[in-house]
Amino acid sequence: MVKKALFDAEADAWESLYRDSSEARWGVFQSYARKRTRARMELCLSLLPPLAHKEVIELGCGPGYYGMRIIAGGARWTGLDISEGMLTVCQKTTRSGRLVRSNVLHLPFRPRCCDILLCIGVVSYLRENEIASLFSEASGILRTGGIFLTQTVRFDPLTWIRCRLPRSIPRPVRIPGPFYPRNPNTITQLLEDSGLSPRRIVPYCKFLIYPAGTVYLAEKK
Fold it and tell me: How far apart are CA 124 and CA 35, in angstroms?
């Protein structure tokens, strides 16, 4: 899979967007990318309920910085990713928790096994029918009253172009695009169709005012 191979190759670059470092692949653009990535993480984590003693699963766990924070909050965390490279970095980041290599469209979890499910930076790679399938599976593994947190991107011509640049052109990370921007009304309807009731819908920006995406917090009915 092209996307998996690129995520494997870019695992260290993605990890660098979360940690404090003076290293930069592309100067000031790396700094901007790091600030945006970490701001999005802080927004997502701020929407979660108390984590102590909760069973938390993260789909598309990447380099593991959400997992590190969730474990520090007292939760039992499981991270899933399709990329071996990402999971290797994640293991070093989290140092605990359970790691699973699998596709988000085929979740290897038993029904009603978790209290909180995160899916950040994943949905925008999926077509609408794949999103519906993912949300249905997510609903199935959540306990009644459990929380599902996900995120989508808005249409961004700069990102659209960046996904299509030749791989030889340097940038903070190479994104295995293209992204599929989604209307919040579409995502809200897909959540509701899967038995997930939206509770918070929070837009976020980059470059202060430029719309970048939306975070959705939903509850299992």
Answer: 20
Residue range 77-97, pLDDT digits in tens: 999 999 999 999 999 999 889
**Which homologous superfamily is 2-220 in?**
Vaccinia Virus protein VP39 (3.40.50.150)
Q: Which CA distances in Å does 111 have to 3, 107, 220?
A: 28, 10, 13
Token pair listed for 29 = 């653009």
Q: Please, are residues 61 and 15 in contact by the beta-carbon 8 Å criterion?
A: no
- Beta bridge partner(s), residue 116: 56, 147
Judged by DSSP in three states, 98 sits in: strand
Residue 163 sits at φ, ψ, to 5 deg, of -65, -20
Phi/psi at 25 (5° precision): -70, -30
114: helix, strand or coil = strand
Q: Is the pLDDT of residue 3 over 70?
A: no
Q: Which residue's entry shows tokens 């038993």?
A: 110
Whether the ω angle into residue 178 lies within 30 degrees of 0, i.e. cis, is: yes
Question: What is each CA distance from 57 to 109, 112, 200, in whole angstroms?
Answer: 10, 12, 20
Query: What pTM did the predictor assign?
Result: 0.87
**Helix or strand run (H / E) with residue 74:** none
